[in-house]
Amino acid sequence: xxxxxxxxxxxxxxxxxxxxxxxxxxxxxxxxxxxxxxxxxxxxxxxxxxxxxxxxxxxxxxxxxxxxxxxxxxxxxxxxxxxxxxxxxxxxxxxxxxxxxxxxxxxxxxxxxxxxxxxxxxxxxxxxxxxxxxxxxxxxxxxxxxxxxxxxxxxxxxxxxx
Length: 162
Fold this sequence. Notes:
- This protein is α/β, with parallel strands linked by helices.
- It contains two helices and eight strands; from the N terminus they run βαββββαβββ.
- 13% of the residues are buried.
C-alpha cells in the first residue's frame, strides 16, 4: 500500500546511511546529488528582463540599486542600443529591448530578489530615489522597476548545510 495515509515503509524515512533532505544551499554543490542526478553547475547564470527604455531601466538598476554596468550591446547596424548588462553577483542581469522566445508583451509576475544587509538603509535609498515600496515583510522590501518588474531586497539568510 502506498500514498497518503499509508504506513511508512523502509524507504519512506531516512535510515542511518541516508543523506538528509537537501536544503537551499545544497543545490549549488558540485557533482551529482544523492540520487545520482547531475546538478546545475554553478547557480544562476543570467536573468534577462525585457524593458521599454534601456536608459531609464539602467538608471534604476545602476543608479538606485547600485549594480555595476558590464556592457552595452548595439543592433547589428551599430546604431540602436539593444541591451545593457549588469553584474549580479556571479551572474549577469541583462536589460534587453527584446527577448528571444514567446512570452507576455510587458513585465512579468516574477521577482528578482537581491541580498542586502540593512533594510533601513535601503528603505531610505528607495525614498530618496522616489521609488515606492509596494510591500514588505520582516526581512524584505518589494518595489517595481520602471517596467513593472518586481524587485526585492532581503536580509533573510538561508540556512547553509555543511
